[in-house]
């Protein structure tokens, strides 16, 4: 019994001794270790969402490539990264075309003895901050050419080191994002244990299964090699991007970056004393959602071909033609069916694709704006649906040359015109008289023009309601507003030019919004290329719709039905009227029948007179489902070309073939 008590006593004594050891002798150390335990997160990229056209055809997909990556540990020295870089290039080849002198200097200074020797040579080095001292050391190495001839592998290692050194703790950078061979993958994989942070993975790049014609509208994505755009790098880093992440850098890819990018996978890392003790993938990541566009890719290509061939066909006789642009849009939703355009090099005559010129290039468009001028006159009360007759005659004002309509320059063809017929024959005189009425000036031949400068804002205010002279709101970055000429007393006569479209400049997308507003009876709709956002099915195909773009009414033109009838009747007569002076007769054979307005603006290339040919239209005239707006600037002065109306006819023919059926439509 005494022996049993003695054994129990010994056990309690051992327990007390162990507790003393843990709590008294090593308590501080264990407490420090507990305090140094932390949880971090590591993120990795996922596949970007795809882009489809309105028919479900894939426009932009993804290529998967084997990649070699580096995830920077919480605590790693420059020498350790230097050694890893030297080891890695034994097993793989790295392109060095981006290697810089600074990269070489960083690699040289990663060796502690080199860094120590260089810093000792810098005057007052002890007074410099760490960052200033290192920056000065790099410049010293470059200035004194301390980096001697490097072997190919040393150069490769220097570039690898620069990528590793530039990473944040626990961030992942691509060392090699494409072209990794089977042999390289195998050799690197076999030696991962000796290269902490190095991993094999996947990188993604964009490809275009149905050709790159639509790329000028869709835009581009930066590659891992390019990294984040320099002008956005700080804001993107703050959003969780890594420096070499791919990101939409222009147009649709940029506009819908948040939809397309997906969400990165998340791995939770438990660390102790700056060493990873446990890794748990807490979120597997989610591929970016897919975007379906309103654009019909086959029709888009056809319209692009029409504009290109049109420019090529007239380029020889029009040396100052800089290109041409077209927009085809749904007037009832604002959806863009096609956005096309080309630029033409005035020196070589070479024609190249420039679809986005339709939203970022502005021109003086000419008489196409007269529908808005007439509506402004009706809404202001200068004319009424039942009282709108004026005589077309040359406008002669004191101190200025006479201004007239194209068919009545001498005054030998004066005629009484209703507002609708003024649109039909494109009367400049009628529009100028209308502007003078709105400005409170009673015209008489030879009188001095006297109007307040508010006439500019009055005319422009009505134009703006249709989308002329203001941004349309299209969901593609880079839209231009156009240009407004000076609105002062010195230029008061220019208000008359403004009334018939020969002063301010507009974009082609503004023309499309304007004619769409006429076609649908007064609703100015935001143009858009986004149709819907979709997930992805398990088999990788397009999933169900998550969101759809709803028509967005920006403003309503508050005109009466009688007022709309005046304008729409005029646009109908432009094409189908009985006058020999109607300006759109070459489009009378287009089926279903269209309503339209053509335009000719007098412009200059330097001191050389040129003309802009434009056109706006909608079809069918009685039940509009599509509008077409286009422009051919810089044509030769007094041109007899009908390239604008011929292109309109060709585009409608393609629309009813590739986009919708015209069966049953008049």
UniProtKB/TrEMBL annotation:
<dbReference type="GO" id="GO:0008360">
    <property type="term" value="P:regulation of cell shape"/>
</dbReference>
<dbReference type="GO" id="GO:0005886">
    <property type="term" value="C:plasma membrane"/>
</dbReference>
<comment type="similarity">
    <text>Belongs to the transpeptidase family.</text>
</comment>
<dbReference type="InterPro" id="IPR012338">
    <property type="entry name" value="Beta-lactam/transpept-like"/>
</dbReference>
<dbReference type="GO" id="GO:0071555">
    <property type="term" value="P:cell wall organization"/>
</dbReference>
<protein>
    <submittedName>
        <fullName>Penicillin-binding protein</fullName>
    </submittedName>
</protein>
<keyword id="KW-0573">Peptidoglycan synthesis</keyword>
<dbReference type="Pfam" id="PF03717">
    <property type="entry name" value="PBP_dimer"/>
</dbReference>
<dbReference type="InterPro" id="IPR001460">
    <property type="entry name" value="PCN-bd_Tpept"/>
</dbReference>
<dbReference type="Pfam" id="PF00905">
    <property type="entry name" value="Transpeptidase"/>
</dbReference>
<dbReference type="InterPro" id="IPR036138">
    <property type="entry name" value="PBP_dimer_sf"/>
</dbReference>
<dbReference type="InterPro" id="IPR005311">
    <property type="entry name" value="PBP_dimer"/>
</dbReference>
<keyword id="KW-1133">Transmembrane helix</keyword>
<keyword id="KW-0472">Membrane</keyword>
<dbReference type="GO" id="GO:0008658">
    <property type="term" value="F:penicillin binding"/>
</dbReference>
<keyword id="KW-0961">Cell wall biogenesis/degradation</keyword>
<keyword id="KW-0133">Cell shape</keyword>
<dbReference type="GO" id="GO:0009252">
    <property type="term" value="P:peptidoglycan biosynthetic process"/>
</dbReference>
<dbReference type="InterPro" id="IPR050515">
    <property type="entry name" value="Beta-lactam/transpept"/>
</dbReference>
<keyword id="KW-0812">Transmembrane</keyword>
<keyword id="KW-1003">Cell membrane</keyword>
<dbReference type="GO" id="GO:0071972">
    <property type="term" value="F:peptidoglycan L,D-transpeptidase activity"/>
</dbReference>
<feature type="domain" description="Penicillin-binding protein transpeptidase">
    <location>
        <begin position="325"/>
        <end position="652"/>
    </location>
</feature>
<feature type="domain" description="Penicillin-binding protein dimerisation">
    <location>
        <begin position="44"/>
        <end position="279"/>
    </location>
</feature>
């Amino acid at each position: 019994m005494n022996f049993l008590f003695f054994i129990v006593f010994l056990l309690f004594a051992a327990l007390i001794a162990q507790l003393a050891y843990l709590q008294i002798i090593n308590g501080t150390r264990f407490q420090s270790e507990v305090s140094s335990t932390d949880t971090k997160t590591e993120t990795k990229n996922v596949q970007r969402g795809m882009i489809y056209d309105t028919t479900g055809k894939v426009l932009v997909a993804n290529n998967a490539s084997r990649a070699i990556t580096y995830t920077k540990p919480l605590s790693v020295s420059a020498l350790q990264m230097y050694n890893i870089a030297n080891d890695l290039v034994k097993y793989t080849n790295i392109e060095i075309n981006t290697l810089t002198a600074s990269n070489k200097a960083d690699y040289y200074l990663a060796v502690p003895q080199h860094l120590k020797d260089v810093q000792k040579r810098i005057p007052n080095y002890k007074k410099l901050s760490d960052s200033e001292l290192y920056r000065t050391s790099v410049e010293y190495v470059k200035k004194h050419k301390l980096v001697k001839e490097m072997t190919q592998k040393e150069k490769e290692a220097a570039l690898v080191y620069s990528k590793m050194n530039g990473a944040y703790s626990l961030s992942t950078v691509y060392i090699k994002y494409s072209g990794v061979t089977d042999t390289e993958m195998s050799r690197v994989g076999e030696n991962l244990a000796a290269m902490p942070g190095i991993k094999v993975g996947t990188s993604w790049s964009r490809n275009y299964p149905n050709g790159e014609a639509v790329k000028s509208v869709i835009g581009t994505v930066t590659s891992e090699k390019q990294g984040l755009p320099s002008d956005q790098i700080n804001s993107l880093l703050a959003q969780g991007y890594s420096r070499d992440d791919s990101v939409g850098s222009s147009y649709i890819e940029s506009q819908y970056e948040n939809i397309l990018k997906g969400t990165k996978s998340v791995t939770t890392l438990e660390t102790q004393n700056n060493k990873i003790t446990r890794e748990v993938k807490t979120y597997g990541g989610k591929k970016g959602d897919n975007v379906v566009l309103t654009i019909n890719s086959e029709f888009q290509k056809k319209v692009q071909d029409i504009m290109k061939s049109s420019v090529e066909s007239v380029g020889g006789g029009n040396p100052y033609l800089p290109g041409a642009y077209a927009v085809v849009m749904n007037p009832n939703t604002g959806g863009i069916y096609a956005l096309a355009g080309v630029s033409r090099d005035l020196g070589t005559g070479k024609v190249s694709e420039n679809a986005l010129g339709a939203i970022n290039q502005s021109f003086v468009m000419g008489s196409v704006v007269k529908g808005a001028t007439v509506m402004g006159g009706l809404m202001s009360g200068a004319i009424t649906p039942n009282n709108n007759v004026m005589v077309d005659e040359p406008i002669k004002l004191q101190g200025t040359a006479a201004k007239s309509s194209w068919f009545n320059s001498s005054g030998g063809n004066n005629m009484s015109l209703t507002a609708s017929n003024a649109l039909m024959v494109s009367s400049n005189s009628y529009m100028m008289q209308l502007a003078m009425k709105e400005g409170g000036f009673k015209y008489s031949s030879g009188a001095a023009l006297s109007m307040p400068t508010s006439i500019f804002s009055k005319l422009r205010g009505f134009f703006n309601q249709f989308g002329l002279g203001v941004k349309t709101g299209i969901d593609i970055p880079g839209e231009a507003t156009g240009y407004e000429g000076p609105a002062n007393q010195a230029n008061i006569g220019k208000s008359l030019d403004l009334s018939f479209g020969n002063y301010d400049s507009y974009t082609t997308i503004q023309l499309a919004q304007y004619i769409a507003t006429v076609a649908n009876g007064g609703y100015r709709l935001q143009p858009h290329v986004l149709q819907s956002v979709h997930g992805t099915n398990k088999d990788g195909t397009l999933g169900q719709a998550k969101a759809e773009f709803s028509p967005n009414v920006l403003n309503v033109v508050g005109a009466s039905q009688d007022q709309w009838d005046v304008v729409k009747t005029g646009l109908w007569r432009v094409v189908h009227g009985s006058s020999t002076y109607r300006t759109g007769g070459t489009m009378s054979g287009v089926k279903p029948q269209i309503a339209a307005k053509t335009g000719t603006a007098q412009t200059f290339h330097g001191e050389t007179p040129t003309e802009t040919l434009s056109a706006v239209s909608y079809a069918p005239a009685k039940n509009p489902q599509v509008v077409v707006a286009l422009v051919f600037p810089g044509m030769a002065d007094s041109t007899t070309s009908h390239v604008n109306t011929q292109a309109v006819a060709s585009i409608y023919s393609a629309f009813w073939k590739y986009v919708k059926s015209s069966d049953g439509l008049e």
